[in-house]
Design goal:
The chain is 77% helix and 0% strand. By secondary structure, the chain is mostly helical. It has one domain. Helix 7 runs parallel beside helix 15 and helix 9 crosses helix 13. The longest helix is centred in the middle third of the chain and has 28 residues. The N and C termini lie far apart (54 Å).
Length: 324
């Protein structure tokens, strides 16, 4: 009976997630944070009857959602924002990684788990952890602990960042930069900025995807380092990279250089936004009590400290005008 109730609720909320923001129906559609909270509520109370399916669907849906968002963006604007954010991204990643290594050693967190939490905070949350775990041959427990740590903080960021942004009266560009540099996963970066404003969405998505590109050189470096230390395992999985970034750029280029189809691009982008809400709902469903219990105090504390370093440091830079 409990399983049937969960299935009915999941399908009902999934429908609410994809309802478009049109005058007649927008009162019934869920906002991004609502989708996440609904997923968390079901996962932690009734339980997710098919966690494997929701976990497999989430990265695919996220990838297509990001690609679709490119349909409403001007490629010239995307390029300008990406170039301007290049320096911020390098500094932010470097500081976070160094802080992560230092904090991990102080707290006594396992070496590989510490690296994964640091990479997930510095670059792109779960995607970076998945890629890095294959590169350093981390075991299932180390990967799970790191993913759970980053996921919990990522979910909190989706709710906390917009609240702080509005409280401090941050402009859309400022919020977009802060969200892109201070929130772990692409899903929550886009989810937090989509309700803040169109400009915030453009800045946040572009800067975040530029940040996510660093998964490639970083995991290559980790793989080489792991190999030199005699930790190579030929049977391990290959790192997975966010190739959807290329799709995002191609979509933006298509609708930028063919003006006649731009109205279609707006429709595609709207569908992608609703798909993103569904993605966040599935992300919430992916969390359960056992994953939280298995995190452990020290890895979670490392994650919190790094989150404060990344989010707090970026916010301070935005407020003082260092990042514009």
């Amino acid at each position: 009976m409990r399983k049937k109730i969960a299935i009915v609720l999941i399908y009902a909320i999934a429908v609410l997630c994809i309802i478009p923001s049109v005058p007649v129906l927008h009162w019934f559609g869920l906002q991004a944070w609502m989708g996440l909270v609904a997923g968390l509520f079901i996962a932690l109370t009734i339980g997710n009857p098919d966690p494997a399916r929701s976990r497999s669907l989430t990265p695919k849906l996220l990838a297509w959602s990001v690609v679709g968002l490119g349909a409403a963006m001007n490629l010239m604007t995307v390029a300008s924002v990406g170039i301007q954010g290049f320096g911020y991204t390098i500094v932010g990643i470097s500081v976070t990684l160094l802080a992560g290594i230092f904090v991990g050693r102080i707290l006594g967190v396992g070496k590989k788990a510490s690296i994964l939490i640091s990479v997930g905070t510095a670059v792109c949350g779960g995607s970076a952890i998945a890629a890095a775990s294959a590169a350093i041959n981390a075991n299932e427990e180390e990967t799970s602990v790191s993913l759970a740590t980053v996921f919990v903080l990522n979910a909190a960021a989706l709710l906390i960042f917009p609240f702080i942004g509005h409280s401090l009266h941050l402009g859309e560009r400022a919020f977009g930069l802060w969200a892109a540099l201070g929130i772990h996963d692409t899903s929550s970066v886009v989810g937090a900025s989509v309700a803040y404003g169109e400009k915030a969405l453009v800045v946040a998505t572009t800067t975040k995807l530029a940040r996510a590109l660093w998964i490639v050189p970083l995991t290559i470096a980790l793989s080489i380092r792991s190999s030199r230390q005699g930790n190579q395992d030929s049977s391990r999985a290959k790192p997975k990279y966010p190739w959807f970034i290329l799709g995002f750029l191609l979509m933006a280029a298509t609708f930028t250089f063919i003006p006649a189809i731009r109205p279609v691009g707006l429709i595609v982008s709207e569908i992608a936004k609703r798909s993103l809400v569904l993605t966040l709902f599935l992300l919430g469903l992916g969390l359960n009590r056992s994953s939280i219990a298995n995190v452990g105090f020290r890895p979670f504390l490392q994650g919190i400290i790094l989150w404060i370093v990344a989010g707090g440091g970026t916010l301070a830079a935005v407020l003082t005008g260092i990042i514009r």
